[in-house]
Amino acid sequence: MAKILHTADLHLGVKLSGLGKAGDRVRASIKATLASIIDMAIEEKVDAVVIAGDLFDSNQVSSSLIRFALGEIARLGKIPCVILPGTHDCLEEGSVLMSIDHHEKPANVSVFLDPENPVIRLEDKNLTFYGMPNMASRSTKNPVTSVQRLERDGTHILLAHGSYMIPEKTAADDHPFGLDDIDNSGFDYIALGHWHSFFELPTTKTKAAYCGSPEPMAFDQTGAGHVAIVNIGNQVTIEKKVVGRTNWQKVELSSANFKYTMEIEQEIQKHADENKLLRVHITGLATADSSIDIDEIHGLLADSFMHLSIIDEREQVPQELLELNLPPTTILGQFIRQMSDAIDKSEDSEQKELLTESLRTGYALLSGKDVL
């Protein structure tokens, strides 16, 4: 029986462009999450920690960040940590992982640095780890079939950083592999990296899983924020453990439901959380009498979030549609004239308001605008 903690894709030092000062807070959260992962490994009394690629976001990171990462891993003590170069920290010229020997590498750290000998053996634990280091960010080389299991006793674990092949979705140069490659590999477990969401592959013979990134790093990432505790014996069990601190969320608010700044402010306030990065999309048709100040809302609520962005995607309609002077031979031109005549003839204020809004909405729809 062997018990490992499987993590990957921490991306220490990630740039996170577009977040401004919040980027520093997210980078700090990723560092704190690494510390939590080390604490979990110690508490769980695992036999080893495996990092299946992209410990660092690039090969150009600061010496202080390298020292921080190695210092945290050193806290594992006698628990070994095996690291695979990924696509961001690949073994290209100037590789950060090739340089860690210059930073007093802890005795418990092993890195796959030799593609000719992708094997790390831990005799005292009867564990054999395998991993083909990524030599570039893009490659057609299969990270699963490029490594062969040795004929010896003990537990055999492969680390692979690449993409599970999905027809018409997986790029041919994204280090691809298939389900049959995994099932026919002969390994006891395959620890995958590269995808940022937790995903256990639907294999039949060999268990394999993406643990996902311990912290989300984009609004479109779902399923991030975990590591895997893997028990390997007669059966293999994979337990998803939450470690993420930040919460990235997108919210869409239709302007049809809000007329004043205060109303949208109150709705956004419901999501307030100092660990949340919130992106709000305000959609629909901007009504003629709406009074919504996006800058005011952001100024009032920005401090309630780790990051807040409000994107105004409302469709704008000209106030004087008749002045557009559209040809009466067009459907849109006829519609504007007929509705304008109806508005002029109406003597009921409520009906006039309803017709005016119908004119604006009809114009937007006939113009191909997304107002729903």
Describe the structure.
The protein has 372 residues and is α/β, with parallel strands linked by helices. It has 3 domains: 2-242, Metallo-dependent phosphatases (Purple Acid Phosphatase, chain A, domain 2, 4-Layer Sandwich); 247-312, Translation Initiation Factor IF3; 321-366. Helix content is 24%, strand content 24%. It has 7 helices and 17 strands. The protein has helices at 22-44, 63-74, 179-183, 261-269, 294-301, 331-345, 349-366; strands at 2-7, 48-51, 81-83, 109-111, 119-122, 127-131, 155-161, 163-164, 176-177, 189-193, 199-200, 207-210, 226-232, 236-242, 247-254, 273-283, 305-312. A 6-stranded mixed β-sheet has the order 4-3-2-1-13-14, with helices on one face. A 6-stranded mixed β-sheet has the order 5-6-7-10-12-11, with no helix packed on it. A hairpin with a 6-residue loop joins strand 11 and strand 12 (207-210). Helix 1 (22-44) runs parallel beside helix 2 and helix 4 packs parallel to helix 5. The longest helix is centred in the first third of the chain and has 23 residues, at 22-44. It is elongated. The chain starts with a strand and ends in a 6-residue tail after the last helix.
